[in-house]
Each structure stands twice: as C-alpha cells, then as structure tokens.
Write a structure and sequence with these properties.
mainly alpha; 0% strand
Length: 68
Amino acid sequence: MSDPETQDPMVAALLRERAGYVNRGMGDRVTQVDEQLALRGHTPAQETAPVSRTAPPKNRRQRPPETT
C-alpha cells in the first residue's frame, strides 16, 4: 500500500495516522502529527474534513446472563 504523495515510508505512515485522527475529531493529535510532518519537510493538505455520520450508531446487543 503506497501513498501517491510520498516515497518516504515515515511520511506515509504519519499521513495515514493523521487521517485517522481527523476522522475521529482528535484535533490536538492532528497538530502533533503535523509538527512531525513539518520536521520531515512535508506539509499536509488541510482539505481533509472529519467524516460526519448521517445516523447515530446502532446499539450493541447485550450478552445473555451467564448461568452456572
């Protein structure tokens, strides 16, 4: 799985990590990854917006009570 933006594996890994933080809305972590990318001479594209859900997640089914 190669990133078309870079040939550097560390930058590619940081970009994937950044995308995950953006999707989860973790802005402070995105800033930390951006700092690491800047140290490596890469400026990430800022057009990545968090993905919003159209419907709330469904409730999980509870386990049946254990019988001994």
